[in-house]
Design a protein that fits this description.
Blueprint (H helix, E strand, L loop, with lengths): L31 E6 L6 H14 L4 E5 L6 H5 L5 E2 L3 E5 L2 E5 L2 H7 L3 E4 L15 H10 L3 E7 L7 H8 L9 H6 L2 E5 L3 H9 L9 H6 L4 H30 L9 E6 L6 H14 L2 E8 L5 H4 L1 H16 L3 E6 L3 H12 L3 E5 L5 H7 L2 H8 L4 E5 L7
Parallel strand pairs: 1-7, 1-8, 2-3, 2-6, 6-7, 9-10, 9-12, 10-11, 12-13
Antiparallel strand pairs: 4-5
Helix pairs in contact: 13-15
Length: 389
């Protein structure tokens, strides 16, 4: 009797998994990594692509949603070997423009997505007005994002940078977006190296080099931008570390002392600025001079003398090394408390109130409100008198 034939072994088939999210399914928010630089040309995109290749070699699913190489061949070469989600074509005023295809990335749902030029304004007809809003959509869908921006595009630094660089920065990103970041990577090179890269045509076209060297790429301006980028990164790292310690129930690390002087356009506020400078000098700390503008105050047009005094005080503060901050809020106390919390202010200098006791009883005291809310902050109230010349 012939032996029964044994059938060949059946190869196991891969299990097909449907990874499409079901309606109503929620994701863990994606992680956000921001590559922050002091100026164009420091190498943010290059560094981001280098890290992307390392992740790709480790088997991590990563795609390029949008990259701007700006004609730099060494940066463009790093795009090879990474998956690219094709850009979306949008018709605008009889012209075909290309934007990042947010819907295609959401459908592809990679583990990580690279999104360059964070402060960009999208073409009309896009789902969102700004590119950072596209990134928020990706994060909400559980997609991790690597993105890049320059420090001058932060909303609260916009005015200061515009004054220093004598240029208008139109594209901005809210500071709340930076606070959302899980990681901030500072991409830094020396000022001379950056100016050399500009001369070599690696940042702008040759015909724009001399003008850029005389304006935005001046050594003084680049020094300021570099310091802002380093401080912004350090503050983000410090905030993240403090939050981790709070969640884990650990003792907070020692925080460098910070001083805030609360400015008004009243005569005699020079004394407050000098007191703040002396305190900051003794503590070797950072210090801020803060003015809050309310909707019912317009010193520029309604009280030119007060506006001129305010400008003089702020100029004096900058000369003494302070960072001048102008805030807008309906309530002065709310703005000062929020700023003090955000910056971890340890010492505050107020001028003695010019209002009567009856006015304070009716309208409340900014100083009393601050003392009630910020119990761990040292507050100094300085008598303010008109200085004699």
């Amino acid at each position: 009797m012939a032996p029964a034939s044994i059938p060949p072994p059946v190869e196991p088939q891969p299990l097909a998994l449907d990874l499409t999210p079901t309606p109503g399914e929620t994701h863990e928010p994606g992680r956000l990594r921001i590559y922050l630089g002091a100026a164009p040309g420091v190498g943010k995109t290059y560094r981001m692509l280098e890290d992307a290749h390392l992740m790709h070699r480790q088997g991590i699913d990563i795609v390029i949603g949008l990259i701007e190489a700006h004609g730099r061949t060494d940066t463009a070469a790093l795009v090879d070997g990474l998956e690219i989600v094709p850009l979306k074509e949008i018709q605008y005023r009889s012209v075909t423009l290309r934007e990042m295809d947010l819907d295609a990335i959401l459908a592809r749902h990679p583990a990580w997505c690279i999104v360059d030029e964070l402060a960009h304004t999208n073409v009309p007809g896009s789902r969102n007005h700004k590119r950072y809003e596209d990134v928020l959509n990706l994060l909400d869908a559980g997609i991790n994002v690597m993105t890049a921006m320059n420090v001058q595009h932060l909303e609260t630094l916009n005015d200061a940078v515009a004054r220093s660089a004598s240029t208008t920065i139109r594209e901005t990103v809210p500071d709340s977006f930076l606070r959302r970041a899980n990681e901030v990577v500072n991409v830094d090179i020396t000022i001379e190296e950056l100016r050399d890269r500009l001369r070599q045509g690696k940042i702008y076209a040759p015909e724009k080099v001399e003008q850029a060297l005389a304006n935005f790429f001046r050594r003084g301006n680049l020094n300021m931008l570099r310091e802002l980028a380093l401080r912004t990164t350090a503050e983000q790292v410090g905030t993240a570390a403090a939050e981790y310690r709070r969640i884990q129930g650990l003792e907070q690390a020692p925080i460098p002392e910070k001083v805030m002087v609360c400015l008004s356009p009243r005569p005699g506020m020079e004394r407050l600025v000098r007191v703040g400078a002396r305190i900051a000098g003794r503590l070797a700390s950072n210090w801020f001079v803060v003015y809050v503008e309310t909707p019912d105050t317009d010193h520029r047009h309604g009280d030119p003398e007060a506006f001129a005094r305010l400008e003089d005080y702020e100029r004096m503060a900058r000369d003494l090394g302070a960072q001048v901050v102008n805030l807008k809020d309906r309530k002065v106390a709310d703005a000062l408390i929020e700023f003090a919390r955000k910056e971890n202010i340890s010492h505050v200098v107020f001028g003695q109130s010019a209002r009567s006791r009856w006015e304070i009883l009716l309208g409340g005291s900014i100083i009393n409100r601050f003392l009630n809310e910020m119990r761990d902050t040292t507050v100094q109230v300085v008598p303010v008198q008109r200085e004699r010349k």
